[in-house]
From TrEMBL:
Keyword annotations from UniProtKB, A to Z: ATP-binding, Carbohydrate metabolism, Glycogen biosynthesis, Glycogen metabolism, Nucleotide-binding, Nucleotidyltransferase, Transferase
Annotated organism of origin: Teichococcus wenyumeiae
GO biological process: glycogen biosynthetic process
Bilayer-spanning residue ranges: none
Subunit structure: Homotetramer.
Keyword hit for Nucleotide-binding: yes
Positions annotated to bind alpha-D-glucose 1-phosphate: 108, 173, 188-189, 206
Protein's UniProt name: Glucose-1-phosphate adenylyltransferase
Lineage summary: Bacteria, Pseudomonadati, Pseudomonadota, Alphaproteobacteria, Acetobacterales
One protein family per Pfam: Hexapep_GlmU
Length: 421
């Protein structure tokens, strides 16, 4: 007797909808030219690649991405790296800029409105479930497991959540849950977040990931759009309304986090500040990093430029091209300099007699001779002058560049130009 067939994956009938329109002002000058999801991360990827890769790896083959703020580099990246979806296989990848589709104002007024304005496109595909994702977090997660919990629990909305230290939850939606993980209260970005009943020092925070039945979501979006008192936001309006009038259930990230078996934690990061962005990148240089980018079973897909191999030249005493505990991408040339615990994106030139430690260098950076850099983030295309010293004099760094509270220095080309103006 043959075994009963396993049920079809729910992801096959789901659509992922990625909200990628927010600037991310806490990243300061890194988002002056690009939206936060388009910021480079981990030497090769963009931040949005994590949500998109999770969707693909989970088995979701219909994806929409809502864009708004300075979206050109994000749209170009997705066109180049994510155009492999095929309509004849019932796959789709829609880039959905704010475009006056509902009213003349045009702009998305909130996260829920960014979905509401494209309901006709969503309904034309007829997905059974909608997986709403934030496009600006770094993590690996199997959405199929969250979809299964949603289906089995009979929830109207399932909210992905993580445990965070209580006073670090002020920037999140914070939940109260009962013994069955039903959400009994939802507070958006509270000044004094409530602790968990069994862990008062911790709070249960929303990851900005929601699963809905599509028909239910469409009804709620139309109801919310007609409410003149709503800000049309999932965290502020839609989810709290469903908590009060329906059935909202929490999905714990630890139940669906993807690991390769060697990580010590369920890894999720909001890289929304310069300090958090720098730290998350530098953490990748650990011998066993908390986020494993080398796991071939759950790859992070991206657009990758055609580049020659990285190159290290000169082996003279005092002029040795080398990098240790570092990620170095294609097209880089380390010429007679020492690089340690750093992350170098593609096509970077480090000229001779430089000492670079704790640096996150974005594509196309040129570091001229005799530079000394420590704990820096350098924006793409920046040309650092010969002899530049950063990371040794906090007052001097703060005068010339953007220095964070934790001592990370952000450098952009306009800052460099101002030095000689």
């Amino acid at each position: 007797m043959s075994p009963l067939p396993s049920p079809a994956p729910l992801a096959r009938h789901a659509m992922a909808y990625v909200l990628a329109g927010g600037r991310g002002t806490r990243l300061m000058e890194l988002t002056e030219r690009r939206v936060k999801p388009a910021v480079f991360f981990g030497a090769k990827s963009r931040i949005i690649d994590f949500a998109l890769s999770n969707a693909i790896n989970s088995g979701i083959r219909r994806i929409g991405v809502a864009t708004q703020y300075k979206a050109h580099s994000l749209i170009r990246h997705m066109q180049r790296g994510w155009s492999f979806m095929r309509a004849e296989r019932n796959e789709s990848f829609d880039i959905l800029p704010a475009s006056q589709r509902v009213e003349e104002a045009g702009w998305y007024s909130g996260t829920a409105d960014a979905v509401y304005q494209n309901l006709d496109i969503i309904e034309s595909y007829g997905p059974r479930h909608m997986v709403i994702l934030a496009g600006d977090h770094v993590y690996k997660m199997d959405y199929e497991l969250m979809l299964q919990q949603h289906e089995n629990s009979g929830a109207d909305v399932t909210v992905g959540c993580i445990e965070v230290p209580r006073m670090e939850a002020t920037g999140f939606g914070v939940m109260h849950v009962d013994a069955e993980d039903r959400i009994t209260a939802f507070l958006e970005k509270p000044a004094d977040p409530p602790g968990m009943p069994d862990k008062p020092e911790m709070a249960l925070a929303s990851m900005g990931i929601y699963v809905f039945n599509t028909e239910f979501l469409a009804r709620e979006l139309r109801r919310d759009a007609a409410d003149p008192n709503s800000s049309h936001d999932f965290g502020k309006d839609l989810v709290p309304y469903i908590v009060q009038h329906g059935r909202a259930v929490a999905h714990r990230f630890t139940d669906s986090c993807v690991t390769s078996g060697v990580e010590e934690e369920a890894y999720w990061r909001d890289v929304g500040t310069v300090d958090a962005y720098w730290q998350a990148n530098i953490d990748l240089t650990d011998v066993v990093p908390s986020l494993n980018l080398y796991d071939r079973d759950w790859p992070i897909w991206t657009y990758s430029e055609l580049t020659p191999p990285a190159k290290f030249v000169f082996d003279d005493e005092g002029r040795r091209g080398m990098a240790v505990d570092s990620l170095v991408s294609g097209g880089c040339i380390i010429s007679g300099s020492h690089v340690a615990r750093s992350v170098l994106a593609h096509n970077i030139r480090v000229h001779s007699f430089c000492d670079i430690q704790g640096a996150v260098l974005l594509p196309g950076v040129i570091v001229n001779r005799h530079a000394r850099l420590k704990n820096v983030v350098v924006d793409s295309g920046v040309k650092l002058p010969e002899g530049l010293v950063v990371g040794e004099d906090p007052e001097e760094d703060a005068r010339r560049f953007r220095r964070s509270a934790k001592g990370v220095t952000l450098i952009t080309q306009p800052m460099i130009d101002a030095l000689t103006a």
